[in-house]
Model the fold of this input.
Amino acid sequence: MSKEWHKSEEFQRCCREFHDACARQPCGKNVDEAKEVLELIKPYIAEKMAGQRIFELKRYEHRGSTYEGVKIAKSPTDQDLEFDVMFVMTGGRDLECHDMGLDGFAKLKLKSNAKPRELFQKTKEKDTSYISAIKTKNLFYSHLDGCKLKEFKEDFKGTDITCNVVECKPNEFREDYKGTGITCKLFYNGPAIKVVVYRDQDKFFTLDLAPHFDLNGEPGKEEMYVSKAKKKGSNDIQWLRSYSLDEKRKFDGMDRDNGCRKMVLRTMKAFVKSRSELSWLTSQHLKTALFRTIDAQQSWKQEEFSQRFMDTLGTLEECLDKRTMPSYFQPGTDLFENYKEETMEATTCRSRRLRLSNNCQSMMKLLSSSINKWKADNSVSQIV
Done:
C-alpha cells in the first residue's frame, strides 16, 4: 500500500539528501590504489598456491557489493574497502553433485573417470568418493598461510610485507599491530579467509578469498559450490550451491536505463545501518527485497526514487509479516530461518509505522537526523 507522500517533492528531496550524504559509494585515490595492490596480490597467491602442488587456480571471479556497485562507505573517514573474490579451483569438472537439498546444500562426488589429483586424495571422505567440504576448507586455509605473504615485495619499492595468521571471531580484528608499509593478516571468516591489508599500521582494505569448485566450467553457465556451515556457528560444514555470479550478472547493467535501483539498495543499506531495531538485517536480505520489488515494479525512473525506496521497504515488511524470506536464487532456503520471532515482530511494527503514517514527517525526521550525524562526524574528522 503506497501513500501519496511517498512521491511528494519534499520527501523525494529528503531521500536524495540522505542518499548523497549517508549512502556514498567508496571512491577516490584510495579505491584506485587498493585495486592496484589487490591485482598484485592475486597472481602472487596463485603462483605460491600452485607451487605447493595442491591448489591450482583455474581463474579468479569477482563478486560482492564492491563489484556490483552497491557498496557504501562506513563513515566519512572510513570507506570500509572490501573485495570478495572466488578462488576457482581446477578439478571442478571431475566432480558431480549428489543429494542436493532444497536449501542448496549437496554432496560432491568424484566422477568415475576423474583425473587423479592430490587435492582429491587429501580431501576425500574415508572409504568413499565424496569430497569433504571441511577438509577442503581447512587445507585451503593452511596452504594460503603457506604462501608467506611476508615475502611479497614485488612492485612495492622495497616496502616490508609481513603476515600473521590470527584465530578470531569473524570481523574481530586485533588493534595492537605495529609495523610499516603494506602488511597482510589472515583471519578465519566463515566460508572465506579474510586477508586484511594494512598500510602504515592503518587498515587499508580487506580481501575475502573463498575456494570454489565450478562443476560446469562454461562461461555464463557456472555451477559453483563453496564450503559453508549449514547454520551460523555450526561445525556441520557442507558444500553449498553458490549463486554469487548470477547475482552479480543481475546487477550488471541494472540501471542502463538511468534508473534508480542501485540507489535504492544503497539507501536501504544506510537506512538499516542507522536504525538499531533494523540493524540485524543483512545485505542479502536487502538485495532479495530489491530483486522482488524489481520483479513487481516496471518503472524505476530517477524521479520515482522515493517511491521505489518505500516500495522496497514494503517488500521487506511483507516478508517479515510472513516470517519467511525465500532466497531469490534458491527458494528452498529461508533467509529468516535463524532469527527470533520477537526481533522480526519489532522490526515489522517499526517499518509499518514509518511507511504507512499519514504524513512524511516521522520518516523525514529519521533521515534528517542521520544526515546531520554524518555531517557532524565529517566536520570532526576535518578538524582532527
About this structure: The chain is about 40% helix and 20% strand. Residues 154-180, 379-384 have pLDDT under 50 and may be disordered.
